[in-house]
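thread from #wetlab-drylab

HS: before we spend reagent money on co-crystallization trials with zinc ion, can we at least see a predicted complex? here's what I'd submit
DV: go for it
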Amino acid sequence: MLNRRRFLGAVGGSVGAAQLLPYAASAAPLGHEHFMAAAVEEGRRNERYPFGAVIVRSGTVVARGVASGDNPTSHGEMVAIDDHVDRLGNQGWADATLYTTAEPCPMCMSACAWAGIGQVVWGTSIEGLRRTGLDQIDLAATAVAEASKSFYTPKLLLGGVLADETDALFRRAQDLRRGGAEENGED
Ligand SMILES: [Zn+2]
Protein backbone atom coordinates (compact mmCIF):
# COMPACT_ATOMS: atom_id res chain seq x y z
CA MET A 1 0.00 0.00 0.00
CA LEU A 2 2.81 2.36 0.82
CA ASN A 3 4.45 1.71 -2.52
CA ARG A 4 1.20 2.24 -4.31
CA ARG A 5 0.57 5.51 -2.54
CA ARG A 6 4.07 6.68 -3.32
CA PHE A 7 3.63 5.76 -6.95
CA LEU A 8 0.37 7.65 -7.19
CA GLY A 9 1.91 10.60 -5.43
CA ALA A 10 4.74 10.63 -7.92
CA VAL A 11 2.54 10.68 -10.98
CA GLY A 12 2.32 14.43 -11.04
CA GLY A 13 6.04 14.86 -10.59
CA SER A 14 6.95 18.06 -8.81
CA VAL A 15 3.73 19.73 -9.84
CA GLY A 16 1.85 18.83 -6.73
CA ALA A 17 -1.40 19.31 -8.62
CA ALA A 18 -1.99 15.74 -9.60
CA GLN A 19 -5.41 14.60 -8.68
CA LEU A 20 -6.58 11.09 -8.34
CA LEU A 21 -10.26 11.45 -8.87
CA PRO A 22 -12.63 9.44 -7.60
CA TYR A 23 -11.63 6.37 -9.51
CA ALA A 24 -8.81 4.30 -8.09
CA ALA A 25 -5.84 3.60 -10.30
CA SER A 26 -5.51 0.03 -11.32
CA ALA A 27 -2.08 -1.42 -11.86
CA ALA A 28 -1.30 1.63 -13.94
CA PRO A 29 1.57 1.19 -16.32
CA LEU A 30 4.58 3.34 -15.84
CA GLY A 31 5.10 6.25 -18.13
CA HIS A 32 2.26 8.74 -17.78
CA GLU A 33 4.83 11.52 -18.18
CA HIS A 34 6.34 9.82 -21.22
CA PHE A 35 3.04 9.68 -23.05
CA MET A 36 1.99 13.14 -21.91
CA ALA A 37 5.19 14.37 -23.53
CA ALA A 38 3.93 12.81 -26.76
CA ALA A 39 0.66 14.72 -26.35
CA VAL A 40 2.66 17.91 -25.79
CA GLU A 41 4.57 17.27 -29.00
CA GLU A 42 1.26 16.86 -30.78
CA GLY A 43 0.01 20.10 -29.23
CA ARG A 44 3.05 21.97 -30.50
CA ARG A 45 1.69 21.50 -34.02
CA ASN A 46 -0.83 24.23 -33.19
CA GLU A 47 1.18 26.80 -31.27
CA ARG A 48 -1.74 29.14 -30.61
CA TYR A 49 -4.16 26.43 -29.48
CA PRO A 50 -1.88 23.60 -28.33
CA PHE A 51 -4.54 21.03 -27.52
CA GLY A 52 -2.77 17.79 -28.37
CA ALA A 53 -3.80 14.23 -27.61
CA VAL A 54 -2.52 10.73 -28.08
CA ILE A 55 -4.18 7.38 -27.49
CA VAL A 56 -2.04 4.60 -26.07
CA ARG A 57 -2.68 0.87 -26.12
CA SER A 58 -0.29 -1.78 -24.83
CA GLY A 59 2.36 0.84 -24.21
CA THR A 60 2.26 2.18 -27.75
CA VAL A 61 0.89 5.41 -29.19
CA VAL A 62 -1.70 4.21 -31.69
CA ALA A 63 -3.47 7.47 -32.52
CA ARG A 64 -2.90 11.18 -32.22
CA GLY A 65 -4.58 14.49 -32.84
CA VAL A 66 -4.24 18.23 -32.46
CA ALA A 67 -6.93 20.87 -32.33
CA SER A 68 -7.65 22.51 -35.66
CA GLY A 69 -9.95 25.32 -36.62
CA ASP A 70 -11.49 23.22 -39.36
CA ASN A 71 -14.59 22.31 -37.44
CA PRO A 72 -16.03 23.28 -34.04
CA THR A 73 -15.67 19.67 -32.96
CA SER A 74 -12.03 19.38 -34.01
CA HIS A 75 -10.60 19.37 -30.50
CA GLY A 76 -7.41 17.37 -29.99
CA GLU A 77 -9.20 14.52 -28.24
CA MET A 78 -11.87 14.27 -30.94
CA VAL A 79 -9.25 14.26 -33.68
CA ALA A 80 -7.32 11.53 -31.85
CA ILE A 81 -10.48 9.44 -31.42
CA ASP A 82 -11.21 9.82 -35.14
CA ASP A 83 -7.62 8.82 -35.91
CA HIS A 84 -7.98 5.72 -33.75
CA VAL A 85 -11.15 4.70 -35.58
CA ASP A 86 -9.47 5.28 -38.95
CA ARG A 87 -6.49 3.12 -37.99
CA LEU A 88 -7.93 0.47 -35.69
CA GLY A 89 -11.68 0.73 -35.91
CA ASN A 90 -14.26 1.48 -33.26
CA GLN A 91 -13.00 -1.06 -30.74
CA GLY A 92 -10.49 -1.63 -28.00
CA TRP A 93 -11.37 1.46 -26.02
CA ALA A 94 -11.50 -0.12 -22.58
CA ASP A 95 -7.80 -0.90 -22.75
CA ALA A 96 -6.87 2.51 -24.13
CA THR A 97 -5.48 5.54 -22.36
CA LEU A 98 -6.09 8.98 -23.79
CA TYR A 99 -3.46 11.57 -22.88
CA THR A 100 -4.35 15.18 -23.53
CA THR A 101 -2.53 18.41 -22.81
CA ALA A 102 -5.60 19.86 -21.09
CA GLU A 103 -8.58 18.60 -19.17
CA PRO A 104 -11.19 17.39 -21.66
CA CYS A 105 -14.10 19.76 -22.24
CA PRO A 106 -17.62 18.35 -21.81
CA MET A 107 -17.83 17.49 -25.52
CA CYS A 108 -14.57 15.55 -25.50
CA MET A 109 -15.19 13.89 -22.14
CA SER A 110 -18.61 12.84 -23.36
CA ALA A 111 -16.94 11.28 -26.41
CA CYS A 112 -14.56 9.45 -24.06
CA ALA A 113 -17.58 8.18 -22.14
CA TRP A 114 -19.47 7.11 -25.27
CA ALA A 115 -16.37 5.27 -26.47
CA GLY A 116 -15.69 3.81 -23.03
CA ILE A 117 -12.05 4.90 -22.94
CA GLY A 118 -10.56 3.16 -19.93
CA GLN A 119 -8.15 5.82 -18.74
CA VAL A 120 -8.05 9.56 -19.37
CA VAL A 121 -5.01 11.60 -18.32
CA TRP A 122 -4.53 15.35 -18.74
CA GLY A 123 -2.12 18.14 -17.92
CA THR A 124 -3.59 21.63 -17.53
CA SER A 125 -6.92 21.99 -15.75
CA ILE A 126 -9.98 23.76 -17.14
CA GLU A 127 -9.32 26.54 -14.62
CA GLY A 128 -5.72 26.73 -15.81
CA LEU A 129 -6.92 27.15 -19.39
CA ARG A 130 -9.24 29.92 -18.33
CA ARG A 131 -6.32 31.73 -16.73
CA THR A 132 -4.68 31.86 -20.15
CA GLY A 133 -7.66 33.65 -21.66
CA LEU A 134 -9.42 30.66 -23.19
CA ASP A 135 -13.18 30.41 -22.87
CA GLN A 136 -14.15 27.19 -21.16
CA ILE A 137 -17.41 25.46 -20.30
CA ASP A 138 -17.34 25.22 -16.52
CA LEU A 139 -17.92 21.51 -16.11
CA ALA A 140 -15.15 19.24 -14.87
CA ALA A 141 -14.22 16.08 -16.76
CA THR A 142 -14.88 14.15 -13.58
CA ALA A 143 -18.40 15.59 -13.43
CA VAL A 144 -19.10 14.41 -16.98
CA ALA A 145 -17.81 10.95 -16.07
CA GLU A 146 -19.89 10.92 -12.91
CA ALA A 147 -22.98 11.88 -14.89
CA SER A 148 -22.24 9.00 -17.27
CA LYS A 149 -21.76 6.38 -14.58
CA SER A 150 -24.75 4.29 -15.61
CA PHE A 151 -22.68 3.11 -18.58
CA TYR A 152 -19.15 4.49 -18.12
CA THR A 153 -16.74 3.35 -15.43
CA PRO A 154 -13.23 4.54 -16.27
CA LYS A 155 -10.35 2.92 -14.43
CA LEU A 156 -8.48 6.19 -14.12
CA LEU A 157 -9.11 9.91 -14.52
CA LEU A 158 -5.93 11.77 -13.69
CA GLY A 159 -5.11 15.46 -14.02
CA GLY A 160 -1.99 17.53 -13.49
CA VAL A 161 0.42 15.17 -15.24
CA LEU A 162 3.40 17.12 -16.58
CA ALA A 163 1.37 20.24 -15.83
CA ASP A 164 4.48 22.41 -15.53
CA GLU A 165 5.05 21.74 -19.22
CA THR A 166 1.45 21.94 -20.37
CA ASP A 167 0.79 25.12 -18.37
CA ALA A 168 3.85 26.71 -19.97
CA LEU A 169 2.62 25.58 -23.37
CA PHE A 170 -0.71 27.33 -22.89
CA ARG A 171 0.90 30.47 -21.46
CA ARG A 172 3.15 30.63 -24.49
CA ALA A 173 0.09 30.17 -26.72
CA GLN A 174 -1.61 33.08 -24.99
CA ASP A 175 1.43 35.24 -25.72
CA LEU A 176 1.31 34.21 -29.36
CA ARG A 177 -2.39 35.00 -29.60
CA ARG A 178 -1.64 38.42 -28.16
CA GLY A 179 0.85 38.94 -30.93
CA GLY A 180 3.93 37.91 -29.09
CA ALA A 181 4.21 41.32 -27.44
CA GLU A 182 4.52 39.86 -23.98
CA GLU A 183 7.27 37.37 -24.35
CA ASN A 184 7.77 37.35 -20.61
CA GLY A 185 4.19 38.09 -19.72
CA GLU A 186 2.61 37.42 -16.41
CA ASP A 187 1.87 33.93 -15.35
ZN1 LIG B 1 -12.86 19.37 -26.18
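DV: Residues 2 and 68 are 43 Å apart (CA to CA).
HS: ok that's useful, forwarding to the group
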